[in-house]
Amino acid sequence: MVKRIITMTVNNRPGVLNRITGLFTKRHYNIESITVGHTETEGVSRMTFVVNVDDERIAEQITKQLNKQIDVLKVVDITDQAIIVRELALIKVAVTSATRGEIYTLIEPFRAAIVDVARDSLVVQVTGEPEKIDALIDLLKPYGLKEVARTGTTAFPRGSQRASSTNKSLFII
Amino acid sequence: MAANMKVKERVAKKQTLCGALMLIEALKAENVKVIFGYPGGAVLPIYDKLYESGVFHVLTRHEQGAIHAAEGYARISGKPGVVIATSGPGATNIVTGLTDAMMDSIPLVVFTGQVASNVIGSDAFQEADVLGITMPITKHSYQVRDIHELPKIIKEAFHIATTGRPGPVLIDIPKDMAVAEAEFDYEQDIQLPGYQPTTKPNHLQIRKLVEAVSQAKRPVILAGAGVLHANAHEQLKQYAEQQNIPVIHTLLGLGGFPADHPLFLGMAGMHGTYTANMALYECDLLINVGARFDDRVTGNLAHFAPKATVAHIDIDPAEIGKNVPTKIPIVGDAKEALIQLIEQNGKRPDVSEWLNKLNEWKREYPLMYKREPGVLKPQRLIEMIHEYTNGEAVVTTDVGQHQMWVAQYYKFKQPHRWVTSGGLGTMGFGLPAAIGAQLAQPEATVVAIVGDGGFQMTLQELSVIQELNLPIKIVIVNNQALGMVRQWQEIFYEKRYSHSLIPNQPDFVRLAEAYGMKAMRATTEEEAEYVLKEAFATNAPVLLDFHVHPGENVYPMVAPGKGLHEMVGVKW
Hints:
The complex is a heterodimer. By secondary structure, chain A is of the alpha+beta class. Helices cover 29% and strands 40% of the residues of chain A. Chain A folds into two domains: 2-81, Alpha-Beta Plaits (2-Layer Sandwich); 84-156, 2-Layer Sandwich (Alpha-Beta Plaits). Chain A has helices at 16-26, 56-68, 100-107, 130-140, 164-170, and strands spanning 2-11, 30-38, 44-53, 72-77, 83-94, 113-117, 121-128, 145-150, 154-157. In chain A, the strands form two sheets. In chain A, strands 5, 6, 7, 8 and 9 form a five-stranded antiparallel beta sheet that branches. Chain A has a four-stranded antiparallel beta sheet with strand order 2-3-1-4, with helices on one face. Chain B is an alpha/beta fold. Chain B has three domains: 15-184, Rossmann fold (3-Layer(aba) Sandwich), CATH 3.40.50; 203-364, 3-Layer(aba) Sandwich (Rossmann fold), CATH 3.40.50.1220; 378-555, Rossmann fold (3-Layer(aba) Sandwich). In chain B, 38% of the residues lie in helices and 16% in strands. The N and C termini of chain B lie far apart (66 Å). Chain A binds chain B through residues 10-11, 14-15, 18-19, 22-23, 25-26, 57, 60-61, 64-65, 67-73, and chain B through 131-132, 135-136, 139-140, 143, 145, 160, 192-195, 316-318, 321-322, 325. Chain B: It comes from Anoxybacillus thermarum. Chain B: Residues 206-341 form the Thiamine pyrophosphate enzyme central domain.
């Protein structure tokens, strides 16, 4: 199984998400995550999919099938390009007065922020590539995770496409 | 007529129209000659305006009949079939037909009623999530949410249904939208940035194919329905003759290349000819023109065309490389691609040895069956129908044994004469499809060849045939069984005939007579001769119930999971 990141712009019409996810179901493709949001153009949304596929042939089929949808304006499999990949996570960790300070120190190298404080918990907000978020969650696990919410991956190509091979290797989610 | 004139005046002034009148005016603007439908609560406002519109509406007796009739119409006329059904059950009854049209790339524009906008989502009477249900089985679909958008939606629907790879487009119209009014402007330009089908093939790829052909020793063309959709039959023949390349058809492609042409090898696939299947196995260059490498054509993909370089011409880029790795992909219209290939006039490959081999196979392994005295063999029946119609009739079928026998023994000489349910394999398709086919070509001889099983799935449409006095000849290949199921049970399930034998079929002759239709039965070849002669001399609908040999199987056959070269039943 290989993971591919596919981004596309779509007409923001009723049912368009249903069309796309329905297509994945119909064709038996596995979605790992989806993000959807507005773009700079009114009426156009961007979707970012992370999918698990058996091989490149299936990845090619996915983009071709998506392209056939009338409401899909552009589809790009950006996995092999130099890309910026981001995800946001909110992590609610159990704390005691003894561990609170420790957690502050621990999250610092991740450039994460504490966005909510309660007597027995903290909410950590972290942004970055999914593997970085995985790493932080692993570190926080021993303290007791109360809740984790992740947005799923959003991504697009960098302005400059140099050194794409090194960028690619960074992204092994 | 007076009302009609009034409508025209209003349109000319671009006046305000209600949704129902917009629909009717749009159909006229699209030059739609006939629509197939069934009224109901949610479409009452539309039917009220149809009442005096002058639009020719065929009331089928079931919505499934309407959509299959529209498919038959589209296949034969080359124009989109138009269907109207009401909300809820009306709409769910067309689901099979939509899927059928989607699988076989048939252009349809289907209007479904919907409950009023303000109650959508409340589980209202006759409400169904038709948009949700039909999304995976339509090329595109709309729900009208703003009456101002209706003209644009209808215009886009016709455009999408008929261009690129054709297919069904559905428009769901809430009841209030049919009465809401807005300005009707049908002259606007279509703007679909997400839908720009490639029709012009890439010149570089064409050159690559020309080069590959010149080097080939054992080239073969596999031609599918794409040739017919593109009206490229002339070009196919011209190209095959220019390059001296033999031609194989898929089931749906039949008629694209004349069956009596020396370069024709027959149909490929599960019940294809030995020569066609072995040619696919042995070829070194396979040129697919407008076929989608369906599993019934390829057999086990691991053994499909193992020695071949594959070139694939298709209007739908997603079909190229989907099932079979393709060296030379050519996205585009079959006609444009073939014209370019002909113009290139590349070096003719040396195929004399290859053609000798193929001709030897044709002689050695023809299609075969045993005639027995006193018994009517279904294969013989199809041959007789072929003789009586000079191979020029429009033939519709359901799915199953009778369909395969028609594909094998009705040697189609011309394009656009063959209407069958290929991809979906829909029982009950043939009879209603014949209605549409006859309306598309009133002068043509139309023969609906159906099984005794499938016939009973849509036989209520006899009523329409009789009412419109369509001179369709209905041929029931009656083996008192669901023949193909029975055949598979015989071969793969140790003759355990689970629910496939129906010895107590109704008297189809008396049934037809109840509809006021002339009907006859034949149980031997002699009787068959007699009733066929009589039927084809009658300019009215006739139903013929042929009691054929019940144990007859379709051969040759590629068993599921096997390669095309492993076919059985090729020789006694």
